[in-house]
Amino acid sequence: MNIMTMDNKVSxxxxxxxxxxxxxxxxxxxxxxxxxSYQGEWYDVTDFSHPGEGSGVYLEDYNGKEVDEEIQNxxxxxxxxxxxxxxxxKNEFYGIKYVGKVTQIDKEEK
Length: 110
Hints:
By secondary structure, this protein is of the alpha+beta class. It has helices spanning about 70-75, 80-90, 105-110, and strands at about 1-5, 10, 35-40, 40-45, 65, 90-95, 95-100. A 5-stranded mixed β-sheet has the order 5-3-4-7-6. The chain is globular and about 30 Å long.
């Protein structure tokens, strides 16, 4: 702890009282859910390993958005549509989880 003296000099008092830095314990990072809308349905793609991430296409960028046009324009096959259909049918497919229909409230929140 430093003390200001009468002649405006700083002197150090008992060194055993030095302030100790306290570290904030690190908490595990909880992954944020990534929800996309396709053809009026919500899908949770948090656990899906998107192969396009290697080329700079990150699903996080589409969180909460409708992706109909992006899926149509970015893929040469109907594989994404088939995977989403399977997720809807089985509630989960390759890390894609079917969540439910997009409601009018969801549309108004955008």
